[in-house]
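Dear colleague,

Thank you for sharing your sequence with our group. We've completed the structure prediction you requested, and as agreed, I am returning the results in plain text so they can be pasted directly into your records. Please verify that the sequence below matches your submission; if there's any discrepancy, let me know and we will rerun it promptly.
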Amino acid sequence: MQGYVSTKVKKALKVGERVSKRNFPFIKNNIIANSVEGTYEEAMTEWEFVGILDEENVERFVPRCQLCNQPGLRINFEIHNPDTRKRFLVGSSCIKKFLVLKGTSSLEESWDFFVRQSIRYASLDDLRYFANDVLASENIQVHQIRRLRKLVADVLGLPDQCSLNSAVFEKKEDWDGLVHYLIGSNDGSDQVWRKKLERIKMILFSPSKLIKKQKLLDTGEKDGHWANIGRKNTRVDTTLSRSEAYKNPAKKN
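Please find the predicted structure tokens below.
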């Protein structure tokens, strides 16, 4: 998936596919037929939410929900029954109304979990796509910094980018996992990789140190003229930024 998938996912979560009440028995029977247990109340708890597919994924994407058969999907939410190994690509409404996902105990709790995971999956795809452009750019603009920090916060399940702090990376494995997802693994010998790593650190923990490309509106220059200036931002001071894991992720604790 490429582009801003999280926008599509949030819209799909808000709107969902239309499910007629006359289709409720068909959907419930479909769930039972592909589960181990023989009653709907038990079968509805066997399923896991495992990922999302954008309509640009032409090889796997389906325009109709595989549970209720409603058309017009732009995002597929993939569910999986580990006991029967069955998989369905569905719309958000079927998950909201007919499944209590594994690890949850009610429709309400299941829906809250599903929404959080959906946004996280979408943000992961957006993060990788967006980070490639940002990390390759010599001059990063303010809105790019904010966008990247917001995506990282969404991936980590934080309420906002201001919550990026040392508590997020209490375990070195969490930091290593984020770095690996964005730029892959390296022992630190690759200069290009090290440069990208330093940029990630600065964006997340010291954004004010970056030289940002900002348009000067008060210098009398013509529209379209740009200059490199530093804007004072609130520094996100973290314990991690002073730790050995931060200074050298290749170094194991």
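Summary note from our side: The longest strand covers residues 48-54.

Kind regards,
the structure core
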